[in-house]
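Troubleshooting entry. The earlier prediction with iron/sulfur cluster gave an output that would not parse, so I re-checked the input for stray whitespace and re-submitted. Clean input:
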Amino acid sequence: MSSAKHLPLLNGASKALETCGYCPKLCRSTCPVSNVEAREALIPWAKMSAAWLVARGNLPADREIAQTGWGCSGCHACTSFCEHANPVAETLYGARAEYRSAGLAPEAVTTSARRQEARVREADAVLAELAREPGVRPDATAALLVGCAYLRKARPEARAIVRSVIAVSGSVRLVSGCCGAPLLHAGDRAGFDAARARIADATRGAQCFVVGDPGCALVLRDIPAEPFVSHVAARATRLQPLLGLSQSGPVRFHDPCALGRGLSEYAAPRMLLSRALGRSPDEFEANRESAACSGGGAMLPIAMPQTSARIADERLAAHADAGGGTLVTACASSLRRFRAQGTPAMDIASVVEQSLGLSHGLE
Ligand code: SF4
Ligand code: SF4
């Protein structure tokens, strides 16, 4: 096999790789990717074992093996199930870096990574417009990173995040740039580290650092970053019931993987929705720690677009089976994924914005 390559042992990952390698595949049914693909090579054990064997030099790496490293949405369902809480997604991100260094990253991933600087410029241009919102001040003690995916693909929701944080905190300074998650997921570890360091520098001295997208908050959690929903829920006394929304039928909350299993934040979005609805939100049968993935994370929509779409379709079918109604989520990737499948999902930031009386979309 002429393209076969051996990879250096994944830095610091040998314990995690071994733990899976010696495991009798206990979490095999948890993975949304292998569940829709029905391919043994995509169960968590197989993806980790392939990386382990390649790292040890027992298996030559090729594009087919490398592709399995990108067969992960970063949902943490396997880790949540695992009695060792083995960090499968994070370890696979490390494997992606090794595969990328060997020139084995999927073409779509490489192409997407090349567009990162253009994406950041596009996001920063939207942020410059939002900087004109009353309450945005460069000397504010609260710093806010909205998230590139909201800025580029969900502008009304990005504005809702900014306005809502200003409403509960008085003023805010906006942080430009990207957290680097797209680079981490593409296997560009150095690019990720540099992007993350720039955000850490930009937030130095802030009394609190609020992050709109939980996918960004997850990779910035040791700065530390506070998810938007947590920040607003701690200051939620001004939220008022929205009659239009509460009387419109079921309003079901989808736990984003990064916010739920990633950051263990289940209470804040439910508290915010309860205030806005005057009752508890409706639930998926699988919710909180057991919630199913939207298929939108960790570059899965780029590396395996059809798989990602099928995962989202299963989540939307579960929403319909539970009674349908309004689907509310709290992350730009899930929002975009659901909307791409034709479902007009709402973001919790829009609900909060309206509940704070800052806009009247549902009244
Ligand atoms: S994540 Fe845990 S349960 Fe799943 S294969 Fe690895 S060790 Fe086994
Ligand atoms: S993190 Fe989610 S998508 Fe990735 S291997 Fe585990 S269960 Fe599968």
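This one parsed fine. Strands lie at 142-145, 173-174, 208-211, 226-227, 251-253, 282-283, 326-329, 346-347.
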